[in-house]
Design brief:
Radius of gyration: 19 Å
Helix content: over 70%
CATH topology of the largest domain: Rna Polymerase Sigma Factor, Chain: A
Largest sheet: none
CATH architecture of the largest domain: Orthogonal Bundle
Structural class: mainly alpha
Shape: globular
Strand content: under 5%
Length: 181
């Protein structure tokens, strides 16, 4: 990456611009957010070390996805004894499928999700996002509210289903209007 900025500033800027997409990619390949965090940490160190291999900033995301993919494979080997893990063939299909998804399609999906989330009231949005806040967040809310964890997960499941239907409707309508994404 040729630029007048110091390499650490350039790396940090381009990494942060793409971190959300890289985390989503890692999550598609890995079983839990905790493992995603570990893989992203290791991948970012590898990216930093290999930054001189990157020619242009606009090539960062595909380059970084290759690194995340290899780190995810390494993490999968650690968990290989767990029978709930995808086989290597499924893992490769998931990793390869991401390459075919265009950046415009991802932006359209993200926009649809944001629009649909805005249709829920604040409490519903909070509940939908609660499992992503970290290990134990649902349990903590259950204890605070006097509800069972199971009832909260059922409520979250119903809200997620409504969200998914809204997103699918939005994307279908967008495609029917002739949008290329």
């Amino acid at each position: 990456m040729t630029d007048d900025q110091p390499s650490n500033e350039r790396f940090l800027r381009v990494f942060l611009q793409n971190e959300e997409d890289l985390r989503a990619y890692a999550r598609a390949l890995l079983p839990t957010w905790e493992v995603v965090d570990e893989v992203m940490q290791e991948a970012s160190v590898v990216m930093w070390r290999k930054l001189d291999q990157l020619r242009q900033e606009d090539e960062f995301l595909p380059w970084a996805k290759v690194i995340v993919r290899f780190e995810a494979l390494r993490a999968r080997r650690t968990f290989a004894r767990d029978r709930h893990q995808f086989g290597d063939d499924v893992f490769e299909l998931l990793a390869a499928d991401d390459v075919s998804i265009g950046e415009e399609a991802l932006a359209e999906e993200r926009s649809a999700m944001k629009g649909c989330l805005s249709k829920f009231d604040a409490a519903q949005r909070e509940l939908i996002l609660l499992p992503y806040r970290g290990h134990g967040a649902v349990l903590e809310l259950a204890q605070e509210s006097g509800r069972s964890v199971n009832s909260l997960y059922k409520k979250i499941g119903r809200l997620r289903e409504k969200l998914a239907q809204c997103i699918e409707t939005h994307l279908s309508e967008s495609r029917m209007k002739g949008d290329p994404s």
